[in-house]
Amino acid sequence: VRKHMRDKRHSRIGTEARTRRGTDSKQDLQAELEDFYDFHGSTREVTERITDPRDRVACILRFFDADRDGYLNHAELSELWGAASRSASASSAATQGEGQGEQGEASAEAGEAPALSEVMYKGACAKAGADPEEGLDTDALERLYDEGLADLDTHFKLLQDLLTQKLASRSKKPLKSVDEKENEDEDDDDDDDDAAEGEESEDDDDDADSDTTEVIECEDEDEFDEVMRVLGLVSAEIMDNGDIRLPSGRIAINRDVAHIWKQRGTRFTGELVLAGSRPKERPMFALSNGDSCSGKGA
């Protein structure tokens, strides 16, 4: 049954349909499917799913690659260096200024990030095996992180903050960094442990989670394309023949032409659906009266 459902493409939920009288019911189907989609996702939720170190390095490179040539030159690497230095200085100044008040804030504003010199840039390129004239690609930048010249997790948290600041927030609360959000999550966990058990406490927790959900949306299509480019995501695309290319690279076709694809394509089990793909050896037949057929009978 499962093989039949896959061959007939019945496992895919259609988004277009018509009633018996020919009325388009696409809006009705979308209204039914809308409850199964969550529109409260944030870019931070997307970046938290990126765990592979190479993918993280590629995201950092694409964010600071101003000319989009796939390499970080001296100016672009200096921007990454300066942003990381400013973030580290602001974090240390904020930690020291907790007990000093306005003096700590003044020292944080006065701090400036050191610039990346030409000698340091050439030294980094030599250590990564890259050409200084060309710049650092993903492999070279990954080698620098592997050598311990910089912390990949710290730079990726910086990327999350910078990417969030680029987007327009619909919430009235100011955007918070990754560290502040993690501290708030820990405080919320402590409060949940101290709370009483019961249905009322669970309802209160659900309401609190929905109220504190950070909703960040792009202002226009250009901003959305920029976020997709930095994170290395691919949007679904409608091809010229009407098929849909999914972000995973697979192609979803119309159910009306599924039988054509089944005849020309390959089954999920690896069994070819082509002429001449049947077994070459002829199976043996079981006969009831083997003696009479062989001539040994009376």
UniProtKB/TrEMBL annotation:
One of its GO terms (molecular function) is calcium ion binding. Residues 1-12 have a biased composition (Basic residues). Residues 52-87 form the EF-hand domain. InterPro entries: EF_Hand_1_Ca_BS, EF_hand_dom. Residues 1-29, 91-112, 170-220 are annotated as: Disordered. Residues 181-220 have a biased composition (Acidic residues). Residues 13-29 have a biased composition (Basic and acidic residues). This is EF-hand domain-containing protein. It comes from Spumella elongata.
